[in-house]
Please model this.
Amino acid sequence: PGIGNAEYLRSRGHESLSYAVRHRSDLSVVRIDIDNFAFLFVQHGRKIAETILKNASETMMSFLRREDTAARIGESQFALVLPATNRIGCKRVAERMREAVNGLSFKIKGETIKLTISIGYNSPMIRHNMSFDTLLEQAEKAKEQVEDDGGDGIACYEPQMTLLRSHASDGEEALQEIDFNEILRRISDGKGSSLG
Model:
């Protein structure tokens, strides 16, 4: 499959979600970032950085099916929509992509450059009131969690916890908020208060 842009992603994402709702099928949304791409860009220039990025993106896209959607939504940022793909299947695809990218190496002026990627994905229970934009934002949160942990990893969005990120310039720590409504629901269902 070819790689589209953000507008293409949104269009195909809405279509895929509508189909999943109508047919009660699975759907997964994925966010991928190349780790430390800005440093690579500064150190080696646009031409080399773009060549490396092209190789990485082609490697990742080789794992997609014809019905999947891929888009480049930033300098080194990608998003995927995977119809009929549940949480297990999505994790499997993500792991294959990560391993393949980790296996790439580039020789530049005697220096060997290795790449890693951060992947966040969202494979929710499909409901009528869902929006594609929300699913993408949730995959983004999972991806940001991987980056916070140092990158080179995979995380699935977990609805039990909402990560509130502080963007203050004075160095405030990010706040983590537990969804207490979820805890109460679990207690009432007899499942206890554990979120793990």
